[in-house]
């Protein structure tokens, strides 16, 4: 759609989806960085209530979005080029 970016939504648990525009930062330097790394780093902030298990939901809003990796930072994330390596869940919910 002309004049509009590429959107997706993220939510946790029963919260309403938070719509995120992947092209909200789309200046020439932003585009150059995305092309150089072959990825666009998109960040959003969420508030979770209570400890324990939470369900993360990724929603498609506009076609054309490709999800490569989701990083959930609960504090203490160390800087790295394209994020931390994959962590594996052991056991069942």
Overview of the molecule:
With 93 residues, the chain is an alpha+beta fold. It has one domain (1-80). It has one helix at residues 28-37, and strands spanning 7-12, 18-21, 56-60. It has a 3-stranded antiparallel beta sheet, with no helix packed on it. Strand 1 (7-12) and strand 2 (18-21) form a beta hairpin. The chain is globular, with a radius of gyration of 15 Å. The mean pLDDT is 86.
Architecture blueprint of SSEs:
Blueprint: E1 7-12, E2 18-21, H1 28-37, E3 56-60
Antiparallel strand pairs: 1-2, 1-3
Task: Identify low-pLDDT runs.
Answer: none
Number of domains: 1
Structural class of the secondary elements? alpha+beta
Order of strands across the main sheet:
2-1-3
Helix and strand pattern: EEHE
Helix content: 10-25%
Give a brief description.
With 93 residues, the chain is of the alpha+beta class.
Attribute tags:
single chain, 93 residues, alpha+beta, 3-stranded antiparallel β-sheet, 11% helix, 16% strand
């Amino acid at each position: 759609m002309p004049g509009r970016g590429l959107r997706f939504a993220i939510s946790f648990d029963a919260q309403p989806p938070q719509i995120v525009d992947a092209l909200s930062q789309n200046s020439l330097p932003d585009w150059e960085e995305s092309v150089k790394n072959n990825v666009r780093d998109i960040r959003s902030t969420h508030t979770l209530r209570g400890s324990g298990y939470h369900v993360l939901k990724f929603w498609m809003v506009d076609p054309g979005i490709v999800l490569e990796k989701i990083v959930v930072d609960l504090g203490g994330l160390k800087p790295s080029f394209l994020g931390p390596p994959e962590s594996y869940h052991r056991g069942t919910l």
